[in-house]
Design brief:
heterodimer, A: 115 residues, mainly alpha, B: 424 residues, alpha/beta, 5-stranded parallel beta sheet, 11 helices, globular, disordered N terminus
Chain lengths: 115, 424
């Protein structure tokens, strides 16, 4: 069964793994996309707070797997901007910077598995 | 992953910039690092699964004293007789299938200097990184007379399982008209709104089955989590069932006498047919043994990776930590586990932990069909956990029943998701 978690090893720390694959036989320092790796890590850290509630199963809490790529970010941003909203997601979204929202949305889109 | 040349940096150069050695990083791809996790609750089980995903070649070992885990969230519904205890139980089969070694035993000692855990005074397991998720232990005799023997007559039911069943059974055998007492400690303790959810659901049980009975809450504080929402619900649903007395109304319990089923405050004594003592607590005892608990009985951590402030190679997550303003909740433990796992993986590859934004959500049932929630958002930047202002907060007061019903559905979905993420 494929690992459907948003924390599959394929994505997490992928930049670091890329760097380390050379092993003992690699004479030269391996190139690593440090910036990209840092973004994946930032997204993974932020997404850690999502996966306790949001699963692949749609229900009373939405499944993020059903969102189109640009929808996660716009929905998250809308929760943040609706100042009279009282749901849990409204209350949570107000604590995230626009940058956080962009990073975690990008991460969730990248790691989304097609069924 | 897409890369472009101008974003590519030579590893050595990048690491030189941060002052880190290249050697730990090379170890990562084939890391056979031994990572040991003690405690198989929401924190420990999540950490084990997350680390196995991050570092598939690492040797991940989970040590847990119980063959199966019994979850506290939703156990107040069991106490009220509207949910079977069996739905609270989770096994470790999925973790084993994923390649995690699960040892059913108690860790009895930790040697931080030689990095080894002793199990049942017998087996010794070395580790490269140790994560403790030991939950809570009761501070026996912090309330005079409340020791382990007393808890078999006056259950705490603050660790789910046999204690939950015992409190349920005492409510069942209660005669209509007999009263129930619950004692509630000052903060910090596991699940800040938990006593008040329990009071609500016991109130529901009494109203439905023992309408002449009353529940008296003796509280060691004057303010509590979701207070206005709980009091609104009690006034609406349980005006004849629930009486709450705070610390400034002589609510602090000093002593219990199991023989006479009496509890003593500073100025009064109260007797009841059933008494639920929610006692003062501390980090699970192995934390003390590992040298990661301070004089408060709880564990100071570095919130970037949940590394102990007292033992650098040991991480502590969940209820045992000093992580305020994050509450001691299943949500917090599960999230801290993931952040800790990423921190451990980064550390094994020579990278420093990175800061992020954290959150918490806790739902509480006020009736079987109504729930309320509290949410919080936190930053761990500057090596300190701080609430983000303007975010978080509780459900609205005076909301329509449909709003409360929607939060019961969310709560149920949350429980399914978080237990699935922790236990598979």
């Amino acid at each position: 069964m494929p690992d459907r978690s948003i924390f599959s090893a394929a994505w997490l720390l992928s930049g670091i793994v890329l760097a380390a694959c050379g092993g003992a036989n690699a004479p030269d320092p391996m190139p690593v996309d440090v910036e990209a790796a840092a973004q994946v890590d930032s997204g993974a850290l932020l997404a850690s707070a999502c996966s306790g509630c949001h699963s692949d199963q749609a229900g009373a809490i939405a499944s993020l797997a059903n969102y189109a790529p640009d929808q996660i970010q716009s929905a998250f941003q809308r929760y943040k901007d609706e100042s009279d909203g009282t749901t849990v997601m409204h209350r949570l979204a107000r604590g995230y910077s626009d940058e956080d929202i962009a990073l975690v949305s990008a991460y969730l889109n990248q790691t989304k598995h097609t069924p | 992953m897409t890369t472009s040349l101008n974003r590519r940096l030579l590893l050595q150069g990048a690491l030189a910039g941060t002052g880190l050695s290249i050697l730990p990083l090379q170890a990562l791809a084939q890391t056979r690092a031994a990572i040991v996790i003690i405690g198989g609750g929401f924190g420990g089980a999540t950490a084990a699964r997350m680390l196995k995903r991050l570092l598939p070649d690492a040797q991940v070992t989970l040590i847990e004293a119980s063959a199966r885990f019994t979850a506290c969230p939703f156990s107040n519904l069991v106490i009220a007789g509207i949910r079977p205890l069996a739905l609270q139980e989770f096994g470790y089969e999925t973790l084993q299938r994923e390649g995690i070694t699960v040892i059913n035993g108690s860790a009895t000692d930790i040697d931080a200097a030689s990095r080894a855990v002793t199990i049942e005074n017998d087996m010794v397991i070395p580790y490269d990184r140790l994560i403790l998720s030991p939950g809570i232990d009761v501070r026996w005799n912090a309330i005079e007379g409340y020791d382990e023997a007393a808890s078999r007559r006056l259950p705490h039911a603050w660790k789910a399982g046999a204690q939950t069943a015992l409190l349920r059974q005492q409510l069942e055998t209660l005669e209509n008209g007999q009263s129930v007492i619950m004692t509630i400690p000052p903060a910090p303790y596991r699940c800040p709104p938990g006593p008040y959810e329990r009071a609500s659901l016991i109130g529901h049980y009494l109203k439905t089955h023992k309408p002449a009975s009353k529940l008296i809450l003796l509280d060691g504080k004057d303010r509590f989590s979701k207070m206005d929402l709980f009091r609104e619900a009690w006034a609406e649903h349980y005006p004849d069932q629930i009486e709450w007395r705070g610390a400034s109304d002589d609510g602090t319990v000093r002593r219990v006498d199991p023989a006479t089923m009496t509890v003593f405050t500073d100025f009064e004594s109260h007797t009841a047919a059933a008494i639920n003592v929610i006692p003062p607590q501390k980090a699970g005892w192995i934390a003390e043994r590992a040298g990661v608990a301070d004089a408060t009985g709880w564990c100071p951590i570095n919130p970037l990776s949940f590394a102990s402030q007292l033992q650098p190679d040991i991480h502590v997550i969940g209820d045992a930590t000093i992580a305020a303003p994050m509450p001691k909740s299943a949500f917090s433990a599960n999230l801290q586990a993931k952040i800790c796992a990423i921190g451990v993986a980064r550390s094994l590859s020579g990278l420093l932990p990175a800061s992020t934004t954290l959150a918490n959500t806790c739902y509480s049932f006020t009736t079987p069909n109504k729930a309320i929630s509290i949410a919080g958002v936190y930053s761990n930047a500057a090596n300190q956990l701080q609430s983000i202002e303007g975010a978080g907060g509780v459900s609205p007061l005076g909301a329509a029943p449909s709003v409360r019903a929607a939060e019961t559905a969310e709560a149920t979905h949350w429980f399914e998701t978080i237990t699935q993420e922790a236990f598979g």
